Amino acid sequence: MPNESTGMNPQVAHAPMTQFPVRDGQLVIGGVPLDELARQVGSTPFFAYDRGLMRQRVETLRQVLPPGIALHYAMKANPMPALVGFMASLVDGVDVASAGEMRVALEAGVAPGAVSFAGPGKREAELRQAVSAGVLVNVESAREVDLIGGIGVDLGLVPRVAVRVNPPFELKGSGMSMGGGPKPFGVDAEQVPALLASIGRAGLQFEGFQIFAGSSCLRADAICAAQRQSLELVERLAANAPGPVRVLNLGGGFGIPYFPGDRPLELAPIADNLAQLQRRASVSLPGAVLVLELGRYLVGEAGIYVTRVIDRKVSREHVFLVVDGGMHHHLAASGNFGQVVRKNYPVAIGNRMDGIPQERVSVVGPLCTPLDLLADRVVLPAAGPGDLVVIYQSGAYGASASPQAFLGHPACLELMV
Ligand SMILES: *Cc1c(COP(=O)(O)O)cnc(C)c1O
After folding, report:
1. Average pLDDT in the 144-164 region?
2. φ and ψ at 212, to 5 degrees?
3. Omega into 184 within 30° of 0, i.e. cis?
């Protein structure tokens, strides 16, 4: 059967988007039909995030994963303060990538002890804020250890640190590789013993390790392999640690299906693998908690981007739906956020969900650049001005990862439903 949105064969179709129900032809978000939601918001475009779906995702992970695995939210995926506050009520910790994110997490009520701070270029002022708040700093260089040591003396505090390791392996099949080979992230595994010694000399409170090998992976076997290799590496490194390993942050890397041919990640093999690793760690690293830090997997599928058709243009037989949103709000859907080959996100006409897909169209934004392409030659129900185009899988790396000032259009709205 050809696929609705691509017209292609099922092997290269989008995975079905079933997370939002349909009622009377309207996509329903958080119980609210899309046309009603658009009226309530008052203007388009907007991102809408469904609280129920985010809660469900965390509950599913809690049910499937072995007990005792800590779940953290990596808030760079979606730093909207209300969403961070909501996620913080569901997970065991929040990982931040700047002092700005740290402030949002702390203001959302996250306990400082449950916040960890990673990033390759932490400024001294950021480290000072983190140490004085009591946040765990994942150190990524000898410079950071020296600075933190001095800050601890200045403030009369014992800073809490973990070591972010650049492993000698990478997460296979990941959309974005974050480890293996030369990387600006973390400290090369070979250099970690020397760094651990300087952490001991500086009198810092050593708490453990973080290894983040890659992002956006849909292959359970690859995630299991990276997690196993991470534990093996930490077992070796722990021999030189100035204290017991309390935290082993295995990173995340769990992907969601964005593109034709992508299939959802299977959690069961990952859960089995983690149970094995946990048993092993209970002997090799007694007392250590295994942590997963997930961004897009927790929030990506719970969000949609909604943009209204302004104009319908036919250019040499090709139909363009020109919408009021675009790459300035949703760079990733336009294919310009780390994609090598541009592929379409799943899209729908959210107020014509019962319509028969019958027309091949391109959905383009209002910017004066051919990069402002939200969907390239997709088959959709006939649509025109006033209709609402929905881009699925938009809860992560949307608004905050987009050049909103480009061309001076209004900033987009974000809301939780
Ligand atoms: C970006 C990032 C994450 C989250 O990645 P996702 O692909 O959104 O899950 C987790 N940990 C660190 C250190 C990161 O930089």
Report:
1. 98
2. -120, 100
3. no
Residue 117 Cβ contacting ligand 1 at under 6 Å = no
Dihedral sign for Cα 376, 379, 385, 388, please.
negative
- For ligand 1, whether the C-beta of 77 sits within 6 Å is yes
C-alpha to C-alpha distance for 401 and 332, rounded to whole angstroms: 8
Tens of pLDDT, residue by residue over 247-258, are 999 999 999 999
Nearest-angstrom CA–CA distance, 305 and 65: 30
Are 139 and 145 in contact, with CB atoms under 8 Å apart?
A: yes
Identify the pLDDT of residue 3: 47
The model's pTM is: 0.95
Q: Is residue 74 in contact with ligand 1, taking CB distance under 6 Å?
A: yes
Q: How far is the CA of 271 from the centre of ligand 1 (A)?
A: 19
Distance from the alpha carbon of residue 215 to the mean position of ligand 1, in angstroms: 6
**Interval 376-386: pLDDT, tens:** 999 999 999 99
Q: Is 95 in the pocket of ligand 1 (CB under 6 A)?
A: yes
Lowest-confidence pick of 142-151, 153-162, 171-180, 286-295: 171-180
